[in-house]
Amino acid sequence: MAIRSLLTSVLFIILAGGAAMAEQVVLSVQSVTVPPYEAAVSGFKAVSQFETKRIVLSEMGGMDVNKKIKQIRPRLILALGMDALSTVKVIRNVPVFYLMVLNPTSVLQGQNNISGISMIIPAERQLKLFSAVLPDLRKVGCIFDPEDSGNFVKKAREAAAKMGIEFFATEVLSAKDISPSIEDMAGKIDAFWMLPDRSVIKQEAIEFLVLFSIETKIPIITFSEKYVEMGALMSISTDPSLLGCQAGRMTNAILGGTDPLQTKPIDPIDVSVSINMKIVKKLNVTVDEKAIQKAKVID
């Protein structure tokens, strides 16, 4: 009887624990329904141990979002994109984990319940991948706005020095400085590094940069596949689905009590490399064959 009673108690504890786990909810908040966010949520759900509910801000119809969140009582909020993070940052009693936010520090003010995965791949890692694809790479140049990319450029300069790569970085403080700053790099660099910086991602700057690349045969290396489709030679970027998987594993650990919430942005683990083979041929650039086999090739 004692053994049967003990087994019954153990079974009750196991079932009760499972029920408690099933009742724990992660709430996904996103501004709109777009493919990158959907891919991130799918990746998250694939590895998350918790039920996931969702709020799409554009579908709320004027409803009080924070009131709705309080009604759901989530264990954790997954904020997808800047608009979602800006909306939920006022919540202090629930952990918030963000994804797909380019510059989270611009809206955060030292909240200790908010963490997330950065979309910015560390400079040293990018330079190593660039060098693996472009074996003749010795000199790299970029333009940047100090407010947007000053800290990243500092780290890039340090990483380049360690790798024996010459690094040319020009500060751009107004739109009129963009074209002359790019033109000044002709003959000085082997590749132009296009950063996610407001000085470069304007349409007119991109068009000028692509023409500069074709005329000088200096390839553009960048942060998004869409610019590879527009004429850059290669990109190193984060993959929404893989970011979602990483977030799922991390939130499992946070809610499971095995890993504390980190307030500093966390580096992405997995990255995607894309190469435009038409541009490779047009610019007559030497590209490592093994790197091509591992990359997503755009013809």
Automatic annotation (TrEMBL):
Pfam annotation, one family: ABC_sub_bind
Signal peptide per UniProt: 1-22
Highest rank taxon of the organism: Bacteria
Keyword Signal in record: yes
InterPro entries reported in the protein's UniProt record: ABC_transpt-TYRBP-like (IPR007487)
Protein source organism: uncultured Desulfobacterium sp
Identification of the protein by name: ABC transporter substrate binding protein
Record has Signal as a keyword: yes
Residues in coiled coil: none
Keywords per UniProt: Signal
